[in-house]
Amino acid sequence: MEVVCHSMALTQAARRVEVLYDQALAPTGLRAAQYQLLATIAAIGPIELSALARVMVLDRRPLAAQLRPLVDDGLVVYADAERRTRVVSVTTRGKRLARRGERLWQSAQAHFESAIGPARANALRARLHDVIHADLGTV
C-alpha cells in the first residue's frame, strides 16, 4: 500500500534510514541521533544551546534531553557562560568518539547511496533541504 500522507512517508523513510545508521554506529555505543549531535558540536565548536537547536531543527527541551546521555557519558560538557545562555562543547573523549564514528557513518552513507543510487540520494537530500527550509507556517 502506498502512503499518501507526507508526514507518514517521511517518518517511515526516516525510521528505515535511522536503523541503517544505528547499526553502522553500534560499535561506538551511540545511536544515529546521538552521533549526529556529537559530530555537529565537534564540527562547530562551543555553541549556545539556542543556536544548536536551530542547527539541529529541534526545540530546546528535546535537544536538552538528547544531550543528557552525552553529558552523562562525558562526551560533551556545558561550558561556563552567562546565566541566561548555556554553551555546550565536546570533550577530548567526545572528539575521539566522533572521529571513530565518522568512518562508520561514511560506511552507512555509502551503503545508503549504493541502495538507492548516488544521483537519487543527492536529489533526495536536496528535496529534504527544501522541506527543512520551506515556510510551512502553522495550520
UniProtKB/TrEMBL annotation:
Top-level lineage group: Bacteria
Xref: InterPro entries: HTH_MarR-typ, WH-like_DNA-bd_sf, WH_DNA-bd_sf
Protein species of origin: Luteibacter pinisoli
GO MF terms held by the record: DNA-binding transcription factor activity
Record's protein name: MarR family transcriptional regulator
Record-annotated HTH marR-type domain positions: 3-133
